[in-house]
Amino acid sequence: MTFEKSNLDNSIKIIQNLMRKKKAVKFVAITGSGISKGSGIPTFRGKDGLWKNYNAMDLATPQAFKRNPQLVWEWYAWRIDIISSKKPNSAHYALVDLQKKNLLNYIITQNVDSLHFRSGSKNLLEVHGNIFRTRCENCGKLSLLTETPKEPPICDCGTMVRPDVVWFGETLDQKIITKAYEIISSECDVLLVIGTSGIVYPIAEFPFIAKSHGALILEFNLEKTPISRIADFTIIGKSEEMVPIFVEKIINEKAY
Ligand code: BV8
Ligand code: ZN
């Protein structure tokens, strides 16, 4: 653990200095499917990605659901079954610890797997929705799935419901995205970017926006991404290993 160890240590030193100079350092986290890999949930891209058997554009789009609702629903049901059997991992819980110390104010997650919620995180923005919720596009009714029906459920108003997630080509919820934008541009001294390939917009833009507002950018990933070129530190390694080490050292610093 040479390069990443030194990078981890250097990032901690810089932040400890910042914490000594500035009274309340505000951390924000942006997470992607890489943070849930440690829980056994496949990521979107990469060798064992979710998309490997399907093409994202074939399934996670409104056109796909219109064309073949049963196929799209089965893909989500398959994912719900995988996710339901998994638990939050040490990276999720490390962020809860950072939040309990009033250091981490918000988590902006692209994940729809509920693991941050289940780990006890507060102030959570699920910018791409939640796989355990369905939405009726006719009457707007939201429902929580308690079991995984084999086909898309029918709303009381008679319309077939859809997963309450943001598909490619769909805009994100305006209120959520506005709030997320406010957070990273005015309430963020240190942005932790954890387990995201940084290619899905508009969230891929957020680290650049935070940087332009003077935030320190710490990226946790197995490899470099388009975010790496603006990150102050890219900590290469599994987030389930590196994030807990990082958080423990920062919390100890706060103890002073
Ligand atoms: C929109 C919900 C307006 C569904 C998802 C420019 C501007 C605006 C839009 C676009 C644009 N260019 C293109 C677009 C369109 C598109 C887009 O960004 N396409 C990409 C592919 C280029 N964006 C949209 O359509 C968005 N809508 O902008 O509306 C608009 C519309 C059309 C045209 C213009 C404007 C909506 C995007 C939301 C899509 N919905 N999910 C579902 O889940 O089924 S996206 C999906 O990808 C998930 O949410 C996922 O979280 C997200 C991002 O992927 P990652 O989380 O980063 O996952 P990935 O596998 O890619 O990477 C995992 C990373 O973890 C890797 O880096 C890996 O190395 C690392 N890793 C793995 N293991 C570990 C690890 N790291 C640490 N530890 C480990 N153990
Ligand atoms: Zn309805």
SSE layout:
Layout: H1 3-21, E1 27-31, H2 34-37, H3 56-59, H4 62-67, H5 69-84, H6 90-100, E2 104-109, H7 115-119, E3 124-126, E4 129-135, E5 142-144, E6 162-165, H8 174-186, E7 190-194, H9 206-212, E8 216-221, E9 233-236, H10 239-254
Parallel strand pairs: 1-2, 1-7, 2-3, 7-8, 8-9
Antiparallel strand pairs: 4-5, 4-6
This protein binds ligand BV8 and zinc ion.
Zinc ion binds next to loops.
Task: Describe this entry's structure for a reader.
The protein has helices spanning 3-21, 34-37, 56-59, 62-67, 69-84, 90-100, 115-119, 174-186, 206-212, 239-254, and strands at residues 27-31, 104-109, 124-126, 129-135, 142-144, 162-165, 190-194, 216-221, 233-236. The strands form two sheets. It has a six-stranded parallel β-sheet with strand order 3-2-1-7-8-9, sandwiched between helices. A three-stranded antiparallel β-sheet has the order 5-4-6, covered by helices on one side. The radius of gyration is 19 Å and the shape is elongated. The chain has two domains: 6-40 and 88-128 and 172-255, TPP-binding domain (Rossmann fold), CATH 3.40.50.1220; 46-85 and 136-165, SIR2/SIRT2 'Small Domain'. The chain is α/β, with parallel strands linked by helices. The mean pLDDT is 93.
